[in-house]
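Minutes, project check-in
Item: structure for the 498-residue chain
Input as provided by the requester:
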Amino acid sequence: MDNSLHLYARCGRADAIRIQLRHGADTEVRDAQGLTPLLLAARYNQMKVLQVLLQHGARTDAYAPLDTDFGHGVELGTCLHFAVESGHVQILKFLVTAAALDVHERTSGSQEMTPLHLAARLGRADVVRFLVARIEDINVRDAHGMTALHHACDYPNALSNEVPRITSSSPPQYLFDAAHVEVVNVLLDAGAEMDTRRSSDWATPLRCAIHRGHFLVAKTLVDHGANSGVAWWFHKFKMMLWPRDQRRHSDKRVKRKINWKRALRMSSPTLVDFAGWTALHIAASSGWQAGLALLIAHGANVELTTTESEECGITALHLAAQNGHYSSVSTLLDAGAGIHVCDDLGDAPLLCALRHGRSRIVKLLLRHGAKCEYHHDTESISLSSGSESILGSFDPRKTSALHLAAFFGLLPVVQELVKASSNLFAIDAVDDDGATPLWLAALAGHLDVVDFLAQQGANIHHYVAGASASGCAAEFGYLEVVEYISTSSPERAMLDRL
């Protein structure tokens, strides 16, 4: 009898449910998933069944696991949350008006979301419209310090596990994005704060949208005036007064931190996250070209630097260069990004690219006037202190000390590295973009290094993205290198013998 009650609730058989309830059926019996008949009626939009169950005393405060996976463990919801999750506005209206349920009721779990948070995250625009008309503070936060606008910008992709699995097919991504754009517009029209910050990492809604790659949502926020800059002094205040606490926040604690935030908003509330990254930094680091162009078009400052102590002074150009995002580097250079600006460790974008094996970026930066100079005393250099102390830290998975030394023309270092190597093939090892040490030496015009490496058996005819070593040397005017490679080619030697 109990199993049939669940089946009737799912199928909308209010008449059959009424008969079973008259014969003593339990309204609170749960199925294998822990759902009561009332929760099933809310999930499957069975209004008549819902009304019959409520008339017979079904509990509206019964919790069961929601179908949405939020990545923070199981979240339990009541019939109110089940109606929101499924997008059934009429069921929700009945529960709020006729059944007088609280629209601020939170889920049970690590997230403690209100129905508005849940509706915003799932892109339920009609549900959001209904709720914002009945909620005084639409900027209320969940246990992780996220507002409804944060959730509307931090939603997963359509094929993610976080999308409810009520139907077998998922909506196309563009429809999913459009639904969240509509939710964002509804929230902004209702007074949602665009520059409020998530408690755990101080991310704004714009930062959340960019991190997830939601271009349409990010554009909507920027069009409404969302900030994308950063003030270093504001970051310092935040680091002293707001420690990074990942634990759940009580309502009292959240209110206290909101007051701190408002007190610190003196003139430029433009910090994006705890590392001092702006939206432009995030877009440049991830190679999101469309977002980068959008932010620059709306006035983002390409000269702003990060403020995290471990990576202080890094510009968007540094990040794009070290991650190998060719189009992003080109866009930033066209926007006036400083090609010679150094971070707090003294590294320019060129050196960042080189240390991460980004030879194509190195070539692009050289085309825009970057200088390939190394100011250390090569006479005092010794491998005994380690290759990293010679040329600074680099990623050994993407490049080598030999690549760096060859590019900077450090012949004594190159000679010692080759002599110390037991690997015969290391001399032609390629970096992350496919460049060999000799190719880099030719690119920078170091004839002595090219000559030494060639004598050691290095391939002088190596190509990187269709560009030869001699072609690179010719592009930057190193004619002596071009002549050396040309006279060393097998084809030229054959012609000389003829």
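Outcome recorded: The chain is about 50% helix and 0% strand.
No further action items on this chain.
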